[in-house]
Amino acid sequence: LRGLLTRTSVPRDVVDYIVYGTVIQEVKTSNVAREVGSVQPFPGSLISATALKMTNTCCVGMIAAGQCDVVVAGGVELMSDVPIRHSRKMRKTMLTLNRAKTLGQKLSLISKIRPDYFAPEV
Fold this sequence. Notes:
Structural class: alpha/beta
Number of domains: 2
Strand content: 15-25%
Oligomer: single chain
Distance between the termini: 33 Å
């Protein structure tokens, strides 16, 4: 956030509102909105929302309504590591199995699955 303001030459004190969101929030990781707010306190409010709501509803709406002049929006996604409540070994196997091309590759991967792979993560 600090880098964004430096690159755009926007002074910190003119930021009216900050909106950050996460697509597919992983419960074991921190909330990106809280992290941004706690590391770099800003005078505006801070909320967490989905990416679509964040940009369309929150930011554009507040500017159009005259509530804010400067709004910072950002977010993250975890699509590359979607939370699957299996062991890490099972998740890796399932993702690799999804990319296997031949029946032989699929059978080879399936044969490596062991009972402990089915233990769910708490």
